[in-house]
C-alpha cells in the first residue's frame, strides 16, 4: 500500500538549496531577529531606522518576493521579511516590559509604605 506521508514529494520548481532554506527558515529568521533586536536594544542601530528598513523589506516580500522565479530568492526574501517582522516587536516588548516593571515597582512601593505606616512603635 502506498502512503503519501512516507513518499518523498518534491515541490515543483524547487531546488535543493531552496528546500534546505525552507526547512531552516524559521530558525534563521529568529536568529537574525534576535541579533538585530539586541543591536536595537543596545542602541547600535537606531530603532526608527530599524523600523523603516523592516517596513521596506516586508513590502519587498509582499509585492515582489512571493513572485520571484528562483526558489532560493523566494525563501531568502521570506526569511528577511519574517526576521524584520519579529524584530519590529522588540520595541513593543520593551514598552510592555518597561510598563510592567514600573507597575510592579509602584505596587512594591505602596506595600512598603503600608508596612512602614502600620508600624506604630
Class by alpha and beta content: mainly alpha
Number of helical regions: 3
Residue stretches low in confidence (pLDDT < 50, at least 5 long) are none
Main beta sheet strand tally, sense and closure: none
Helix coverage percent: over 70%
Net shape: elongated
Number of beta strands = 0
Order of helices and strands: HHH
* Rg calc: 23 Å
Assess the beta-strand content as a share of residues: under 5%
- Name the average pLDDT: 87
Spatial gap, N to C terminus: 85 Å
Explain how this protein is built:
- The chain is an all-alpha fold.
- It has helices at residues 16-41, 47-63, 71-118.
- The N and C termini lie far apart (85 Å).
- It contains three helices and no strands.
- It is elongated, with a radius of gyration of 23 Å.
- Helix content is 75%, strand content 0%.
Write a brief structural summary:
The chain is an all-alpha fold and 121 residues long. The chain is built from three helices and no strands.
Which helices and strands, and how do they pair?
Layout: H1 16-41, H2 47-63, H3 71-118
Helix pairs in contact: 1-3, 2-3
Features:
121 residues, mainly alpha
